[in-house]
Design a protein that fits this description.
The chain is of the alpha+beta class. The chain has helices at 21-26, 35-54, 64-74, 85-90, 98-101, 121-130, 245-251, and strands at residues 111-119, 141-142, 146-152, 157-164, 168-178, 183-195, 198-203, 217-223, 227-232, 237-243.
């Protein structure tokens, strides 16, 4: 679900993608044979992903298959982690304009990210090793519920919640850290429920088997002030879009 949609890392082989029919029609290759070709493919793919952000709530303005292919291109990015990853994910004042940050810095709430789309471990492996044309159907799926993560640099806490029709929610919370390698480790120590006016929760017992590098984690492929893409420990790939206070008020998410 939103609290477990992309929680593990996949070590994929460094194999160039084949070209799918859709990719051929759009005129760019998913095989990065040169540095220039790789850069062009990445920019093209990122442009498609950004259309998801610009489309607001109507994420399906970008077809599921098109988004799958674009995310698979981004998944092949090698090298250093995204710059200023912690600040981008978790500091509401980072890169914020004076108008957009007004009244937010005092609250120190961090940033909020809606889960948009996920690709399963199986499809990531198949698409990487055999080519995207070997992955049938849409390749991935838009997440059907309102699932929003909150990373907060001020207290280094993560919240991962599912919000249903503005009347019910389930929120996991815990500590997180970001390493120099661009890995975000986390674990949950609290679970809270809301149903209408009723609210209750409890602390989760510590899991001794999930310590250090054995914790759940995300490895971030890309992150900016609009969208972030990460691989999870379970092997899947996911994309989130940053959401504002108005969105949270509309969905009654963390309000």
């Amino acid at each position: 679900g939103g609290a477990a949609a992309a929680t593990s890392l996949l070590r994929t082989p460094s194999v160039a993608f084949g070209r799918s029919a859709n990719a051929r029609r759009r005129g760019f290759s998913l095989s990065a044979t040169t540095e220039e070709g790789s850069s062009l493919s990445t920019l093209d793919a990122l442009g498609v992903i950004k259309r998801v952000v610009k489309s607001g709530r109507v994420f399906q303005k970008v077809s599921s298959r098109e988004l799958f292919e674009s995310l698979m291109v981004m998944n092949q990015i090698k090298g250093k982690k995204p710059e200023n990853l912690l600040e981008t994910l978790a500091d509401e004042s980072f890169n914020a304009s004076e108008s957009s940050s007004s009244g937010v810095e005092e609250d120190k709430l961090g940033n909020f990210w809606k889960l948009v789309y996920t690709i399963s471990k199986k499809n990531v492996i198949t698409g990487t090793a055999k080519g995207l044309e070997e992955v049938r159907g849409d390749g991935g799926s838009y997440f059907p519920l309102t699932a929003v993560q909150n990373w907060n640099v001020h207290d280094m806490r993560i919240q991962n919640g599912i919000f249903v029709f503005g009347v019910a929610s389930l929120v996991f919370a815990g500590d997180f850290e970001v390493t120099n390698q661009g890995i975000l480790y986390f674990d949950f120590d609290r679970l809270d429920f809301k149903l209408g006016p009723l609210a209750f929760g409890f602390d989760l017992p510590p899991n001794e088997s999930r310590q250090g590098k054995k914790r759940p984690f995300f490895v971030f492929v890309y992150a900016d002030d609009e969208v972030c893409i990460a691989k999870g420990r379970g092997g899947g790939l996911a994309v989130w879009k940053k959401v504002d206070k108005q969105f949270r008020e509309d969905e009654n998410a963390y309000i």
